[in-house]
Amino acid sequence: MTVNTLSQIKISVLDLAIVRDGGNATDTFKNSLSLAQHAEKWGYERFWLAEHHNMQGIASTATVVLIGHIAAGTSTLRVGSGGIMLPNHAPLIVAEQFGTLATLFPNRIDLGLGRAPGTDQFTAAALKRDEHAAMEFPANVEELQRYLSEGNKNGRVRAFPGEGLDIPIWILGSSTESAYLAASLGLPYAFASHFAPAQLHNALAIYRRNFTPSENLKKPYVIACVNVIAADTNKEAERLATSFKKLFLGIITGNRQQLKEAVEPDEDFMDPMEEAALQQMIKYTFIGGPEKIKRELENFIQITQIDELMVTTAVYEHEPRLYSYEILAQLNKE
């Protein structure tokens, strides 16, 4: 078995379009485009945006619109969804929207699909999401595939534009259920280990063991998403990471807030029980200077044998956030 290293795999970006405390969505979108343009220059493979709703600190609600904005401001970077929460949308609409994107930006658009609502139950209801939507996810994925296929030319319902376009579909997951689906359809698989680490290894094993080759993919292909906060020193990275930890602590406690300014690591902003819950949730988070980041990521890659590493970085100030991605890009080239 080939053992992958950091320099042998592709690296990509997941942008959650986080709104900083004291900032606004306009600032967020400017920073997202800036990050995408730098990522393209530094050799990142793809730039994905996630669909979330009713979250004051996340501005990627209109994911398709934002994908178009990022794609228009770059030239070679693959841009896509990480992901579109398919049960929130009719498959035909998704086929038409991504068909439009793929027509505007040929060979650059990825369509990542998830089954979660990307929000709370009240907002899911406001989205007119059917209570059985998650159960229908596999059938909806296949319906979407049909609309995008050449073979649908005689179908009574067709996607224009979209039909016959080569738009890679990815199955996203944070549990083992999605692994079975990705394997059965012969699609690439992306796991959200940046916030749901518990099932990572089980899901990857299930996906690889059950994978059925398809016209789209002859052998399994896996992305794992992790949190990375890199700086010149371990101490500075730990300071920057306090913003990220506060953000995730808010998710755990139900007190969701915008991304706060960093504080000194020794400032007490959570009790021991909160810290234990946080550490469990952010198990696959890599914080430190270049040497520490490289060592820990190499270990993660060797254990998981992923084909591609996707990284999300929640840092309050834009320049240190860019620098974190630049450090990773340099490590990827060593």
TrEMBL record:
CDD domains (UniProt xref): Flavin_utilizing_monoxygenases
Luciferase-like domain ranges (all copies): 16-300
Cross-referenced InterPro entries: Bact_Lucif_Oxidored, CmoO-like, Luciferase-like_dom, Luciferase-like_sf
Family to which the UniProt record says this protein belongs: To bacterial alkanal monooxygenase alpha and beta chains.
Alphabetical list of NCBIfam families matching this protein: oxido_grp_1
Protein name: Luciferase-like domain-containing protein
